[in-house]
Amino acid sequence: MNRVLDGMRVVEGSAFVAVPLAGMTLAQMGAEVIRFDRIEGGLDAGRWPLAPSGQSLFWAGLNKGKKSVAVDMRSPEGKELVTRIITAPGRDAGQFLTNLRVRGWMDYETLSQYRRDLIMVTLMGDREGRPQVDYTVNPALGIPDMTGPEGYDAPVANALPAWDLMAGNLVVSSLLAAERHRLRHGEGQEVELALKDVAAATLGHLGMIGDAVVNGHAREKSGNALYGAYGQDFTCACGGRVMVIGLTGRQWSGLVKVTGSGAEMEKLAKRAKRDLRDEGVRWELRHEITEILRPWFAARRIADFGPEFDKRGLTWSVFRTVPEAVAQDPDLSEANPMFSQLDQPGLGRFPVPGFPGDFSAKPRIKPQPAPQLGQHTEEVLGDVARLTDTEIAQLHDKGVVQSPGYTARSAA
Amino acid sequence: MNRVLDGMRVVEGSAFVAVPLAGMTLAQMGAEVIRFDRIEGGLDAGRWPLAPSGQSLFWAGLNKGKKSVAVDMRSPEGKELVTRIITAPGRDAGQFLTNLRVRGWMDYETLSQYRRDLIMVTLMGDREGRPQVDYTVNPALGIPDMTGPEGYDAPVANALPAWDLMAGNLVVSSLLAAERHRLRHGEGQEVELALKDVAAATLGHLGMIGDAVVNGHAREKSGNALYGAYGQDFTCACGGRVMVIGLTGRQWSGLVKVTGSGAEMEKLAKRAKRDLRDEGVRWELRHEITEILRPWFAARRIADFGPEFDKRGLTWSVFRTVPEAVAQDPDLSEANPMFSQLDQPGLGRFPVPGFPGDFSAKPRIKPQPAPQLGQHTEEVLGDVARLTDTEIAQLHDKGVVQSPGYTARSAA
């Protein structure tokens, strides 16, 4: 992480991937991010994968570096408290992210009465506020239909919640853009966006909506081929599998050269009366190209050709499982300055990533672990909501808020 | 799009998905974004999908609302011109995005000599600057290994360039964070990030690195199941396919209730001696749950149960192809204020998306189409690089720059 957003304070009421990721991204750029949750934990408190202790590795991953407040939001005192935290004064405070979409006390109309220049970014399921998740948006828009082995007769969903990830990042951009506007014009605002709209817009940006309308056909499943040019996976003599790319002219000629397949590619081009320097022709002739290249890879071990591929600057990689990648790839270890090994109580010791960007004016610092639920309740009640020690004690005693340490003291 | 970033000027030297998407996202929030390209067009000028005219729907999709300058960067005059455009004065200018990573004249060290407070964000393949694309990063980190039908014996890649999309969004966040820092402290900076690091960090954020290290196992392929709780696809009597979600307790109980499967779920729980209110138990017993639910869906048409699912607020969707989604889903049409039908020369007429976020202080405006290559060469040379008409004419005559209109005039 780093300190480029030093001084900014953001409050987050969230669950699952997108908005927690947004808050964490801001925290990893140095903002103070306060996530509030129900006393029993948010809807994502037990999301898989879990550590052997039963604690959620997922939750810990998406809430790194935040402050955690546990509060009973069904009580009037809890509602008042959350309102005070969200709307607390401070030039760089008054910024709220949520996907909870609570009408009434926690909506923009109400909250902005307590702080006129509030910035609030709300992520919804669809634009009407109906529930949608990554797993439903994706099939509705057709990505699983074009994913999977050639000829396979059913849709194949991503293992990666790509739309959630994108939506979370757009929440960050929206917040930073709205804060820029506030700094220049003194004006807060509400930003609403929907997960489904994020996916729908992206389809348009990638040309898929135009393709559907003007060409009228559904993109076929093409296994692991790179769409629209050449890129393919090959099994090698060692049993490993590689992905090789011939997207640009330079990548393509490098691949042909290193595999010594120039003469055969020329024969293919002549036979088909097509020019393989055209990326679209490489796509259309991908099966024929693959047949030419397959024996080359089948006869060689990755260890034999890999160094040569790197030396020539080819674009390629090896297929791995996640555990193999973690064990073998230095980019997933502390050799990569983005990662630090952290010891995390209840989770274990493993490499934890910071923000991917490296800012020259704000050097990388070690990523912070996720808080325990309610770890910062007392601190935030005092420093942000400006309650006295007596008030804080009363709220704990009434069960309106919870702090792990405080509970222990009360029980003692 | 909208005008929340009104006044900001960003220069972009890019190709393919991530950095073009970053620039376009800024343009769709109202920034002036100037993309420069070689006179023959960038590496992505012909990227598929194509319109029947042969023009790239992909390029048009990722460059909406930008200004285009075509310049010969091999010539000293071209280099000087690009330098002037990037480093032109203006409080909200001096911001440069690139994935071209040209050493020497176009690196941060050189450019920042012309403008001390330059902000430059560079996206690389991996952190060492080696070439990597979405199609190589993804297999290297293990996502295709966990994607695909249960028991399928090969990795299955996404059809969606999810890492590119994410990286592009992080370029936006990095730029906005660096600009915030500059506005407060007067200091520019260089930000470097790598596509592979974006993917590696995300694996960590989602708990997958922790899972690999502390649990040691590779996540199995699970078809279209929602990982870690319950969510599954079902074929219906009408031949359609739906995705239904039981991630939260509320979603799960709603699904059980509407399908009348409560008694059978109870029997299952008793037999297995597990509590289905625990999301992880639903994951572990997902095959048994699916067997209970399958006949219900197989006996019903989507049209029969869909309205009831909506009425009860269930989280579900229908599987579609992209053309089906475009034809059937109002969220992909002008019924959604994010979309406008645009007539685009050489491409056709179809719904074009703006920025997903709706900013209350800066209402949506119609998205702008992509420029023609070089469409704004004259304008930018005059207004930004501050060249005289004579200088602009000389550069055209020497072939250092190109404008579609200008060429026509010279030929006349």
Automatic annotation (TrEMBL), chains A, B:
<dbReference type="InterPro" id="IPR044855">
    <property type="entry name" value="CoA-Trfase_III_dom3_sf"/>
</dbReference>
<keyword id="KW-0413">Isomerase</keyword>
<dbReference type="Pfam" id="PF02515">
    <property type="entry name" value="CoA_transf_3"/>
</dbReference>
<protein>
    <submittedName>
        <fullName>2-methylfumaryl-CoA isomerase</fullName>
    </submittedName>
</protein>
<dbReference type="InterPro" id="IPR050509">
    <property type="entry name" value="CoA-transferase_III"/>
</dbReference>
<dbReference type="InterPro" id="IPR023606">
    <property type="entry name" value="CoA-Trfase_III_dom_1_sf"/>
</dbReference>
<dbReference type="GO" id="GO:0016853">
    <property type="term" value="F:isomerase activity"/>
</dbReference>
<dbReference type="InterPro" id="IPR003673">
    <property type="entry name" value="CoA-Trfase_fam_III"/>
</dbReference>
